[in-house]
Amino acid sequence: MIGTSLCKWAISYFAAAIVWLLLAEVLMVAGFGFPNDDIGGPDTLVIVHMVCIGWLSMVVCGALFQFVPVLVARPLYAERWTLPALALLTLGLTILLAGFLALGGHINGPRWLLPVGAGLLIAGFVLVVANLGMTLWLARPLPGPARFAAVGLACICVTAAFGGMFSLVLSGAAVAARWPELLVSGVPIHAIAGLGGWLTFTAMGVSYRLLAMFMLAPDSDARLGRLAWLAGAAALAVGVVGGVLALWRATGLNLVLLVAGAAALLSLIAYGHDVLGLYRTRKRRALELNTRMSILSLASLAAVAILGAALLATGSFQPHVGALVFLVAFGWLTGLVLANLYKIVPFLTWLEAYGPVMGRVPTPRVQDLVAERRATKWFVLFFAGSWAATLMLLVDAALGFRVALAVVTLATLGLGEELIRARRLADVAEPLRLPTGAAVPHLLISRN
Amino acid sequence: MSEFIDVDVRPILRAGGEPFSIIMAALDRLAPGQGLRLYAPFKPVPLFDVMASKGFAHQEAELEGGEWEIRFMPVGSFEAAEPAPAALADGDWPEPVVHLDNRDLDPPEPMVRILAAAEQLAPGQTLSALLSREPVFLFRELTKRGHQWRGGFTPQKDVYQLTVRVLA
């Protein structure tokens, strides 16, 4: 192992992602898309793809570029592919969103916007998957957390492939007329592979290592995470393969979704059990803010499992699927990502700024780069707003949803500012802030 | 008689097994003057002390994929053996001057303490540290400062043993 360097563009991915998140939140506050618009309508698709690709996928890509090398103790396969991938994803998403806006009649645009945008996004994800995939491939046999990431990478391929086909159908390409059922039956697979496989499963895997690292909890037991991985991988395999088979035979998806859902529930229960175990066996008694806020996002995930099961049992899944997806995207994924960014960004900044002089002169601690008390209120607002917004969707209160989203937006802005302050070393007390030989890092790029 | 008995513990460790007794059993089979060639998925640092106490010196070579080939020879017989590769010619490192136990420190404090301790050493001196994880971000700083290091997990995978040699 030659050691892990800083991924030069990881911070750029994080910054681009936060801009997309803010943009999506502002649009939702303004009443754009669901619940004012149809859940499958073009306006909602704009928001969904801003959040899932622009925010969540970008931030996960940046985090994986930095932390997959840590998970497998190997350097990233091709650091030079990370910037082109960022450019392709950004450009592809912009064109895809323009395509949705044209579809919704907001702008005049040619029909090829959607397939071209989707094509660029697929190219970007191919670069990401090839890069991370080769890194993992060369590190076999994989440790537990990296196996989650491997399944996640397979799922983003499925998601992107379906997305590409949808873009052809929606743009009215002749080739798409042969699969009239594709859009109806394919969307659940697209969503399960994307939100469940790529985003949730990857986040679960990485959180095993990050939580153990931050709490000093023992995670050397090879059995840790095995049941969660097996059940989750089975759920995704059943959901995706079964979904494709159901699509091909044009039969209903319900049985497939029921089996996949049961396996997913088992996976989440095993994951919850493992995470509670990590909290219990930790050596670090006092938890930092990022770990405490991760608990709230995990609570959201538990709520997703309970709510999902309850909606299925009462037969009211379909009308409330929007609330469930919102809770997955915000309470669980966005909450977890923001909590961890609040640790990762100061840590990478600290390493870059003070690494060269560490041990030679007194340097601040990582905790000195952040002001937890100030950030706590933004996190509280974020989670309260997200849970309130979910509730408003469940009771069909569109205006209440927008008010709750305004609180979420304010909290996101506040946390964004905290991250910028950490990057600028703005909260470090003066005598220690810039010893000779240390420099303030660039806001958006890491120097090695 | 071949010069070495080969022991490959990689499949044993992959299967979650315990290779120590197999290595010790192989030692018992060695003819006088014969060496042991060990293949391991990580550098078996703790074994070096055990083998030294039994009168064996070692040469190490990193293989592809982070695996290691270690040759243990009865002390004094390396001169007669084939010349060591250039990368291994720096000879054995001196005994560590400083011993750190950083296992229970909050990250990234272990890294800070190792770098601070390294600053206090004279050129060529070494320090040893026990850690609960592989210090992947520390390696980057050590490389930049021109220091060398050797490290590896104990077979139980719960302690990472690191030796740092300050730029001579």
UniProtKB/TrEMBL annotation, chain A:
Residues passing through the membrane, by range: 12-34, 46-73, 85-107, 113-139, 151-177, 189-215, 227-248, 254-272, 293-315, 321-342, 375-393
Source species, domain of life: Bacteria
UniProt keyword terms in alphabetical order: Membrane, Transmembrane, Transmembrane helix
Name of protein: Uncharacterized protein
Upper lineage: Bacteria, Pseudomonadati, Pseudomonadota, Alphaproteobacteria, Hyphomicrobiales
From TrEMBL, chain B:
Pfam families: DUF2249 (PF10006)
InterPro entries, sorted: DUF2249 (IPR018720), TusA-like_sf (IPR036868)
Signal sequence range: none
Residue intervals passing through the bilayer: none
Occurrences of domain DUF2249 (ranges): 7-72, 100-152
Top-level taxonomic group: Bacteria
Listed name of the protein: Universal stress protein
Biological source species: Bradyrhizobium neotropicale
